[in-house]
Specification:
Number of strands: 0
Strand content: under 5%
Structural class: mainly alpha
Number of domains: 1
Order of helices and strands: HHHHHHHHHH
Helix content: over 70%
Radius of gyration: 17 Å
Largest sheet: none
């Protein structure tokens, strides 16, 4: 039994460390030799990388951050030695997001968790994830605000989970993810109310 507990602890540590990988920060260092935190909004996520470095670095950062949310859950789901419960998948996902937001590689600082959270919900409840992404896309394309789209999509995530999964544990997970994203966007919310939030112009 002690060995089994070690697997549980090991996977949780792995999820945190994997989530902590600051892809946006590292890409900016590799491509431009800069600390992305000193430019634009100061965030290490795909949106700020897009603003500072351009389209493709932003796209790559988004893909890599989404993969951070997917891969730990898939590894645990396909681990043949132990059959983990869905609740443990949830723990893995939440710990991964925490790693992204509070990276050990950046001394406890990190991103806002949106892309990583999207990867987590894709792995846990794909239909709810797609619905949230479509809602995010609509809000973003009509308003130009990435942060507003992220907040509203996260707000409706528990609703989509209820519609497609009707699983209380997953619904609570959706609420927790919404609260994490809401907290990480507190400065954006203030700027939105003041009309000072930066838009992204696609055309």
């Amino acid at each position: 039994m002690k060995i089994i507990y070690l697997y549980y602890i090991g996977f949780l540590i792995f999820a945190y460390l994997f989530g902590s990988i600051p892809w946006g920060y590292w890409l900016a260092k590799i491509l431009k030799g800069i600390d992305i935190r000193n430019f634009g909004s100061g965030n290490i996520g795909a949106t700020n990388v897009y603003r500072v470095l351009g389209t493709w670095p932003g796209v790559f950062t988004f893909i890599l951050d989404v993969s951070k949310g997917i891969i730990p859950i898939l590894i645990v789901k396909n681990f043949s030695y132990i059959k983990f419960s869905p609740l443990f998948f949830v723990f893995i996902g939440i710990i991964t997001i925490i790693g992204h937001n509070y990276s050990i590689f950046l001394k406890g600082k990190g991103g806002k968790g949106v892309s990583c959270s999207f990867g987590v919900i894709l792995a846990l409840f794909p239909m709810a994830a797609v619905s949230s992404f479509l809602l995010w896309s609509f809000i973003f394309l009509t308003s130009g605000y990435v942060s507003l789209g992220s907040i509203i999509a996260a707000l409706f995530l528990p609703v989509f989970i209820f519609i497609f999964n009707k699983n209380l544990v997953y619904i609570i997970t959706g609420i927790i993810i919404f609260l994490i994203i809401l907290f990480s966007h507190r400065a954006n919310i203030i700027r939105l109310f003041k009309g000072k939030e930066n838009k992204i112009k696609l055309w």
